[in-house]
Amino acid sequence: MPATPAPPAAGISGAGATAPATHWAPDFGALRRQDPELAGVLLAELDRQTTTLQLIAGENFTSRAVLAALGSPLANKYAEGYPGHRHHAGCELVDLAERLAIERAAELFGAAHVNVQPYSGSSAVLAAYAALLVPGDTILAMALPHGGHLTHGSEANFSGRWFDIVGYGVDRHTGLIDYDAVRVLAREHRPKAIICGSIAYPRHIDYAAFREIADDIDAYLIADAAHTLGLVAGGAAPSPVPYADVVCATTHKTLRGPRGGIVLCGAELAQRIDRAVFPFSQGGPHMHSIAAKAAAFAEAATPEFAAYTHQVTENARALAEALAAEGLRVCTGGTDTHLITADVSPFGVTGLQARGRCAAAGIVVDKYTLPYDDEPCSTGSGIRIGTAAVTSQGMGTAEMPQVAALIGRALHEERGLAPLVAELVGGFPPYPTPT
């Protein structure tokens, strides 16, 4: 009897799927023998991920192929510099891995130049700032209380300390970006760069409108597509590449690769971006992570991944509708992407309390401070959730009402929900046992 096909995150296709194990294959048994304490932590985390509902908007499950690259001997190699121009010997083969990642990403996103070395999304944004700006320059970015990222102006972050940040927000009533208001701020403050992108905006961003605003004041346009670049790869979200001077993103959210960053830009900025990554802000790149990025880009170029990204957004729309039926106030009335933000105050709880009640039921969500929130940032009035991970597990629109009902029951502080959650996710293991 043929084995049941694995869900998207777990499958490995091609000739390598049946290749024999190599002498360097990760050996968990060795870790157990050498460091049982740490092995126990890893096993407990695997159990947590496979028995609870993973609804963090910025998390996902990588494929086994990506995990294999992360555990490869490339982790041993120092490779400061770029392919063909390294500071260490013995880089001929890791050069091939990095070139594969660059070529695959360039083709996938239609970018003239790609840098795959950033350690994280924040590192990618830092590189963009370093390439285009100097300390003291003015930046127009989405305000943090409205969904902006730490690198968009937090006083605790390099962005807020080194630059003069002007924040734009969303309309109080619709929750949508008011592009006319953004244009007014741009003309008033004349920023050197405008940042478009958010960690909590559930609707598609009008990149063409931002391009017009940037051109109107002769500013750079930097798109932070950390959350949506995977959806872009699958055709489930508009691409910022044709409009932005620089696109910064992560590779581990909807793109379903390893934790890391990426920068896309035009040929005219290629040298400035590369120098801003190395040697300005980073040293030796993580070659095992770059190889894993290459694997993820190859996966993202497949029809299966495109179908996955469209399922992610369909699941998000279905979940948003079901959450509204449970009594949550869904921001912007729904979502175009993988993420949902919702007001939980109708349940008489803060976002922090909602996160705790969900955690007790085995449901993992983020607290969220809503735009114009009366609650302090430490508690917030909302939650932020995403459907990328549960979709990787194989869940579809049929499961979203069940997920919403469990969240609603958890917010009502109903007891005994954890076994029901475990039963639901038990039917969708992220890494099924090979048969």
TrEMBL record:
One Pfam annotation reads SHMT
State if Transferase is listed as a keyword.
Answer: yes
Q: Name one GO biological process term.
A: glycine biosynthetic process from serine
- What InterPro entries does the database record attribute to this sequence? PyrdxlP-dep_Trfase, PyrdxlP-dep_Trfase_major, PyrdxlP-dep_Trfase_small, Ser_HO-MeTrfase, Ser_HO-MeTrfase-like, SHMT-like_dom
In terms of domain of life, where is this protein from? Answer: Bacteria
Q: Which CDD domains match?
A: SHMT
Q: What is its EC number?
A: 2.1.2.1
Q: Where in the cell is it found?
A: Cytoplasm
Q: What is its main location?
A: cytoplasm
Q: In which pathway does it act?
A: One-carbon metabolism; tetrahydrofolate interconversion; Amino-acid biosynthesis; glycine biosynthesis; glycine from L-serine: step 1/1
| Statement: the UniProt record of this protein carries the keyword Oxidoreductase | no
- Please give the residue positions where the record annotates the modification N6-(pyridoxal phosphate)lysine: K253
Q: What SUPFAM superfamilies would the database entry show? A: PLP-dependent transferases (SSF53383)
Q: Which UniProt keywords apply?
A: Amino-acid biosynthesis, Cytoplasm, Methyltransferase, One-carbon metabolism, Pyridoxal phosphate, Transferase
Which cofactors, if any, are listed as required? pyridoxal 5'-phosphate
Q: Which residues bind (6S)-5,6,7,8-tetrahydrofolate?
A: L144, G148, H149, L150, E268
**Role, per record:** Catalyzes the reversible interconversion of serine and glycine with tetrahydrofolate (THF) serving as the one-carbon carrier. This reaction serves as the major source of one-carbon groups required for the biosynthesis of purines, thymidylate, methionine, and other important biomolecules. Also exhibits THF-independent aldolase activity toward beta-hydroxyamino acids, producing glycine and aldehydes, via a retro-aldol mechanism. Thus, is able to catalyze the cleavage of L-allo-threonine.
What HAMAP family does this protein map onto? SHMT (MF_00051)
Give the record's family classification.
Belongs to the SHMT family.
Q: How does it assemble?
A: Homodimer.
The protein here is known as Serine hydroxymethyltransferase
Give the gene that encodes this protein. Answer: glyA
